[in-house]
């Protein structure tokens, strides 16, 4: 019975409220592109996080949006577009975010994906 009520409530919450920073990690994210703090495109990105997976125990996001990996500050997370729970069979789920690297100021963009 609880499973029957859980998903409709989660669906309604998703559409009625913004995602909290902790809920961002309920989706998988893969690197898309990187640019320097001045806006120039970069081939080598300082935000070398790779895929940030579901229930990833190495990554934590604080309530004010700072990403930590293994207790080291990586940067500030900015959610650009909320991911969707529903897809049309594609790997991308429509979410888009950026992480501003705390050391270099590089901006790394991520797409949400089905893991």
Automatic annotation (TrEMBL):
The organism's place on the tree of life at top rank: Bacteria
This protein's name: Uncharacterized protein
Organism per entry: Snodgrassella alvi
Classification lineage: Bacteria, Pseudomonadati, Pseudomonadota, Betaproteobacteria, Neisseriales
């Amino acid at each position: 019975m609880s499973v029957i009520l859980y998903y409709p409530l989660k669906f309604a919450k998703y559409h009625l409220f913004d995602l909290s920073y902790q809920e961002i990690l309920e989706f998988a994210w893969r690197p898309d592109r990187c640019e320097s703090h001045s806006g120039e495109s970069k081939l080598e990105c300082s935000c070398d996080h790779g895929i940030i997976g579901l229930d990833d125990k190495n990554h934590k996001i604080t309530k004010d949006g700072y990403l930590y990996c293994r207790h080291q500050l990586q940067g500030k997370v900015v959610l650009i577009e909320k991911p969707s729970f529903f897809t049309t069979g594609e790997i991308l789920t429509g979410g888009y975010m950026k992480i501003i690297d705390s050391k270099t100021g590089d901006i790394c963009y991520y797409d949400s994906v089905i893991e």
